[in-house]
Each structure stands twice: as structure tokens, then as C-alpha cells.
Specification:
Chain A is mainly β. Helices cover 14% and strands 42% of the residues of chain A. The longest helix of chain A has 17 residues, at 366-382. The N and C termini of chain A lie far apart (54 Å). Chain B has helices at residues 46-54, 78-84, 101-113, 119-132, 150-164, 180-197, 233-242, 251-254; strands at 3-15, 18-31, 35-39, 59-68, 71-72, 86-89, 96-100, 143-144, 168-172, 200-205, 218-223, 226-231. In chain B, helix 5 runs parallel beside helix 6. The chains are: A mainly beta, B alpha/beta. At the A-B interface, helix 3 and helix 4 of A face helix 2, strand 7, helix 3 and strand 8 of B. Chain B: This is Fe-S cluster assembly ATPase SufC.
């Protein structure tokens, strides 16, 4: 067996210290096996997991899962008591999609993944029931579930989104208003199913939202998973995609816009665990204003059974002002030499003043020119969502973000 | 009758070593319908003049004036100057990912005219203008300058010149990097714009080649940040034969002298 662990150096950009056209961390590789001496890098697959909060020591902020997060500002979610009762939501209707509350003893719970941090385990322990979203039927359909009345008391939630074999659908999980929420979302994609899940964070300015998404993809299943984080004080959505059976395919997309004082984080983990599986991870973010902060960590593990894997992950950040910080850390672990391709890329760059000059030299105002450039940068993700209504809504939301500056 | 006047213009550029003087007293007057060629060796300040007229923030006007119909443009922002009727065809047009040519052209036209163009005539205008510049229709849906060849970028600049209809256009080395076919197409576009709108043109070039296709009314030779000589199109022919050597200082005077010029603000 050939084994290689490749942990890319942390790419950090602190604006104000980088030159105008700073582009760094532009790395991409497709080499399968690079022999290295044993460096004690803990691999993602060996990270501690448990559904019991008590199994995790109290959070210090030094843990590998927490070292980029402002943990002191949400100890209530990691270490306190959470309200685990049914949470209020509204949902649109579509034939083929049914919503129900299921007991925590339901056999589906826990089949997609297990918490890797104390906030997720705390929520897991606290909930009494989970909201089950069952997707059946081969027609395309969309259901939007909106949580907008969560209040300011710390809460826990558990959602199971289950796509029956060969079903198709798009589920939007939207958050608005106040929240102090720690939640787990399990996504079960049956054989041959094609599911899109959008986690849309448009919370109020003081909201804190910590989420772990666990997706398990069956044979030839396809999941498009999209994290859109715009509103909230601290938003951390960590999606894990387990490509458990041959032919499984995940496209993990992310879009974020961090304003002054906002912390937006996403730790993406894709586990190739079967032959001929494919993953594409693309996260793009913009940062604007004093203290705007983003964190992206992309872990890809290609297991020793995952021959013929095709994987690529990338993160791009556009820095619009001074006083921001973007961390961007891709990691790739490969345990088999027989892969079709694996690579990663990360780049964080300042807003290009020459682009602004070019547009303004054609009569376009500075405000409009900035909007065009930022929209252009983020549009790649918006256009991949595959829902015209949602695309329009997001474009409008992004314009609002830009106007706020 | 519109006129663009440049009076005793002194311009500094910010460099890592501090402010550096590039233009040292430029005087020029371009009336509507006239073509003025500005020629000169590398580093003589030609591009600085172009970017200063457009209002690029990298350049500081130390003294002098730029007047459009008697009104100073120096206090105007870049976009205000464009809306007042100035146009700069860039030497190195930048790429703007995710912004299509169509979207950009419509946004710019709306900004310049103060109202959105009528959909039907606008689409027709764009299509016809592109066809005349031998640009494939698929261009319109591509992102601005992304993956464009050198010739495609320059044609895209002239497309904007034709569609936006400025009163004065500065063409900054539009001919550089073009093969003869592209040079002819681009020159035809400039001549067409002039015939249609009667705009005044400041044609900045290092070579005389483009002057075979665009006939200048006046030629100004730029050396060390100011106009060293001016004349009619016969001056261009003389430069073609003799080059810039006779304007350049002898080696003795170069020592201790200041070399003028700064690269165009491009990447």
C-alpha cells in the first residue's frame, strides 16, 4: 500500500499587509503518492468522534476543530444546556416531500455521521426529536424550510434529510432573525438519487449559528451541497460528505460575504471511501470592513479502497477593504496510489483597483463598478445553484451586502 | 465646437522611491474632428499623459490644466470624466471575471447616456458594430477580456469607442501587438467612429505603422515629458526614416540626468 499525507501550509491573508495584487497559496497538484517522513499530523479520519457531549472535554479554543473560532463568545452552545424541543419553522409544500418529527431513537439518526466537536455533540445530546424531511419521487421539486423565530435562548436542532433511491429534489434550509443555535443535519442520499441541499444563513446581526452537516451518499448518488452565509455574528457550517458507495458524486459549494465584525467559517470534509467516487469543492467569499473574518478548511481524504477517485477542492477570497482576515487551508490525504486525479487550490487577493479604473473609465460609478466586480467574482457559485428563484434572491442579497459598506 | 486643451501640464507618479516627475509642461489643443498623433520613445511620458487625462489615481497633477470646452476636468472623478465625453482605449485592458461583455456594455451605455438604451436598437447596434470589427457574436457572452487574445482585447476597446460615442478619445498604443489584419480592422473602426460622430482623437503610438491607416492632422513628438517638436503628417514620415535618435540626449548629458517615464499602470 502506498500512503501519503499531505497537509498544505496554512494560507492566511491579513489585508493591509499584502500587496495590491497579492495572490498566494496558488497550489495545485495531482500527484498521488509523495513519500514523506512520519510527521505527527493527525489525519482527519482519526479525529475523535462522539454523540455524547460529556465525552468531550470543555472547549478551550486550542482544539484542532476550534482554533480559528471565537469560542469564548458561544460557550453556552458548546458547554451549556440547550433547549432541545421542536423548533419553530415554516415550510413550503411540494408533492413528494414530507416533513415529520421523528424520535431520537429512530434508526436513521446517526447513520450519516458522528459529531467531531463539542457543540455538535451537545446539540445531539439535547434534542428530543428530529425533523425528518423525506424526499421521494423522480420529479424535480423544491421545498424551503425557514427558521425565523428561534429567539435568543440557546437551542439545539437535529434534521434528517432523506432522499429515497432515484428521487430528485432541492431542499433549502434557511435561517433568519435572532438565533443561538447548535444543530446537526444528516443527509442520506439513496442509490441513484440526485439531491441539492442549500443551507442559507441570513441571520440577524447578533445571531450565532454552529452547524455540522453529515451527508452519506449511496451508490451513484449525487449531492449538491451549498452553504450560503451572509448574515449573523458568528456562523460556522461544517459539511462532511461521505462517499460511501461506488459512483457517488458530491459537489460542495460555498458562498460567503463577511462584513465588519462578522465571523464566517466552514470546515469541509470529503471522505472518498469507495471506488470511482467524485468530489468538487468550490468555496468563494468576499470580506469587507474592520474585523471581517472568514475561515475555510477543506479536508479531502481518499481512502485505500477509493480507487479511481476524482477530486478537486478550491477556495477563493476577495478582500475588499483593510482590517479583514481570511484563513484558507486545504488538506489532502491520499491512501491509495490508484486515483484519477486530486488537487487543490487556494487564493486570497485584494480588490483589483485596475478593474475599478477600467469600469469607471467607461462612465460607470464606483459603487456600480464595485458591485459588478464582486458580483462577477461570486456569480460562479450563484449560477451553479440551479434554481432561478434562489439565484435572483441571492443576487439581490449580495447587492444589499455591497450597499451596506 | 468642442476642444480638449492641455496647458503646461506637470504630472508626478507615485513610485516606491517616492514621487517622480514624468510630465514637464505639456501643451496641446485638440479640436473636435482632429486627429493628433503623439509619438515618442519608450519612457517619454506618452502613457502618463493618457492616464492623467482619464484620471487614474496613480498620477498627480502638480500644475497645469486639462480643459474640456474651457472647463477643468481635474476635479472630476474617473467616471465623471467619461460621462463628460472622454474615452481612453487602454494599452493593456484588464480582465474582469464573471462580468460579461454584454452586461458591461449596457451598464456603461446607460451610465454615459443617463438612461438605459432602447432594447431593440441597442442589441442591433452592438451586433452590427461587432460584425464590422469581425468579432464573433459569441464574444458578447464572454467575460470582459478573459481569455481574449491581444487583438481581441484591442477590438473590444474600439467596440466600446464606437458604442459609447465620446467627444474625445485617447488611444494608448492601440496598435501595439496587432498583426496587420487586426491593425486594419481596428483602424477602420477608429475612422468609422470619427466619420460618424466627429470626435477628436489623441493617438498615442511608438510606431508610425498605424499612421498608414489613420491619417493624423498633427504629429507631436514627445521626449522627456514634453513636446519636443510638432508638425503635420510629414513629421511622421521623417520619424519613420530617422527614428527618435536625434531627440535623445547624447551620452554625456544622460549621465547625471533624470530618465523620464513610468510604465503604464497595468499588470
Amino acid at each position: 500500500m502506498t500512503a501519503a499525507t499531505h497537509a498544505a501550509p496554512a494560507a492566511v491573508a491579513v489585508s493591509g499587509a499584502v500587496p495590491t495584487t497579492a495572490q498566494h497559496g496558488m497550489t495545485a497538484h495531482s500527484d498521488g503518492a509523495r513519500a514523506r517522513p512520519a510527521i505527527p499530523v493527525q489525519t482527519r479520519s482519526e479525529r475523535f468522534r462522539s454523540v455524547h457531549a460529556a465525552d468531550f472535554p470543555p472547549v478551550t479554543g486550542r482544539e484542532v476543530a476550534w482554533k480559528f473560532s471565537p469560542t469564548a463568545r458561544f460557550t453556552d452552545l458548546t458547554d451549556g444546556d440547550l433547549d432541545g424541543s421542536r423548533l419553530p419553522f415554516t415550510a413550503t409544500d411540494a408533492a413528494g416531500v414530507t416533513l415529520s418529527w421523528i424520535p431520537r431513537t429512530d434508526p436513521r439518526i446517526g447513520t450519516a455521521g458522528t459529531p467531531e466537536d463539542r457543540a455538535a455533540a451537545n446539540a445531539w445530546t439535547a434534542v428530543t426529536e428530529a425533523l425528518c424531511v423525506h424526499v421521494g419521487g423522480e420529479n424535480e421539486k423544491t421545498v424551503t424550510i425557514t427558521r425565523s423565530e428561534l429567539g435568543t435562548a440557546p437551542r439545539a436542532a437535529h434534521t434528517v434529510i432523506e432522499a429515497a433511491p432515484h428521487s430528485r429534489g432541492l431542499i433549502v434550509l434557511a435561517g433568519q432573525g435572532d438565533a443561538r443555535l447548535s444543530e446537526n443535519v444528516e443527509i442520506l442520499v439513496g442509490a441513484g438519487a440526485s439531491l441539492t441541499v442549500v443551507s442559507l444563513q441570513e441571520w440577524a446581526p447578533e445571531a450565532v449559528h454552529l452547524a455540522s452537516h453529515f451527508a452519506r451518499l449511496g451508490r451513484d448518488a449525487r449531492l449538491k451541497h451549498i452553504v450560503v452565509s451572509l448574515g449573523g455574528q458568528i456562523v460556522r457550517v461544517n459539511p462532511t460528505g461521505h462517499l460511501a458507495e461506488p459512483g457517488a458524486d458530491i459537489e460542495a459549494l460555498g458562498l460567503y460575504f463577511a462584513d465588519a465584525g462578522q465571523h464566517l467559517e466552514q470546515q469541509v470534509f470529503v471522505h472518498h471511501d469507495a471506488p470511482h467516487t467524485k468530489s468538487r469543492v468550490t468555496y468563494k467569499g468576499a470580506l469587507q470592513g474592520e474585523g471581517a473574518r472568514s475561515v475555510w478548511i477543506g479536508d479531502v481524504l481518499i481512502g485505500n479502497t477509493a480507487t479511481g477517485t476524482d477530486s478537486y477542492e478550491q477556495n477563493r477570497n476577495l478582500v475588499l477593504s483593510d482590517g479583514t482576515r481570511a484563513d484558507s487551508i486545504p488538506n489532502l490525504e491520499i491512501e491509495t496510489g490508484d486515483i484519477a486525479g486530486a488537487g487543490h487550490a487556494s487564493a486570497t487577493g485584494r480588490f483589483d483597483d485596475e478593474q475599478l479604473f477600467y469600469l469607471m473609465a467607461r462612465g460607470i460609478t464606483e459603487e456600480e463598478a464595485r458591485r459588478l466586480v464582486v458580483r462577477g467574482f461570486l456569480t460562479e457559485i450563484v449560477q451553479k445553484i440551479g434554481s432561478p428563484g434562489l439565484e435572483q434572491r441571492l443576487t439581490a442579497a449580495l447587492d444589499m451586502e455591497l450597499r451596506r459598506s | 465646437m468642442s476642444v480638449l486643451e492641455i496647458k503646461n501640464l506637470h504630472v508626478n507618479v507615485a513610485t516606491e522611491q517616492g514621487e517622480r516627475e514624468i510630465l514637464r509642461g505639456v501643451d496641446l489643443a485638440i479640436a473636435e474632428g482632429e486627429i493628433h498623433a503623439i509619438m515618442g520613445p519608450n519612457g517619454s511620458g506618452k502613457s502618463t499623459l493618457a492616464y492623467t487625462i482619464a484620471g487614474h489615481p496613480k498620477y498627480t497633477v502638480v500644475s497645469g490644466e486639462i480643459l474640456l470646452d474651457g472647463e477643468s476636468v481635474l476635479a472630476m472623478s474617473v467616471d465623471e470624466r467619461a460621462r463628460a465625453g472622454l474615452f481612453l482605449a487602454m494599452q493593456y485592458p484588464v480582465e474582469i471575471p464573471g462580468v460579461t461583455v454584454t452586461n458591461f456594455l449596457r451598464t456603461a451605455k446607460t451610465a454615459i447616456s443617463g438612461e438605459a438604451p432602447s432594447v431593440r436598437t441597442w442589441i442591433k447596434d452592438v451586433r452590427e458594430s461587432m460584425a464590422r470589427l469581425r468579432m464573433d457574436a459569441a464574444f458578447a457572452e464572454r467575460n470582459i477580456n478573459e481569455g481574449f487574445s491581444g487583438g481581441e482585447k484591442k477590438r473590444n476597446e474600439i467596440l466600446q469607442l464606437e458604442l459609447l460615442g465620446p467627444r474625445f478619445a485617447v488611444l494608448d498604443e492601440t496598435d501595439s501587438g496587432l498583426d496587420v489584419d487586426a491593425l486594419k480592422i481596428v483602424s477602420e473602426g477608429v475612422n468609422r467612429a470619427k466619420a460618424n460622430t466627429g470626435l477628436g482623437i489623441l493617438l498615442i503610438t511608438h510606431y508610425t505603422r498605424i499612421l498608414r491607416y489613420i491619417k493624423p492632422d498633427f504629429v507631436h513628438v514627445f521626449v522627456a515629458g514634453k513636446v519636443a517638436e510638432q508638425g503635420g503628417s510629414e513629421l511622421a514620415e521623417r520619424l519613420e526614416n530617422e527614428g527618435y535618435d536625434r531627440y535623445l540626449p547624447t551620452e554625456a548629458s544622460v549621465a547625471g540626468g533624470v530618465s523620464a517615464g513610468a510604465p503604464a499602470p497595468s499588470k
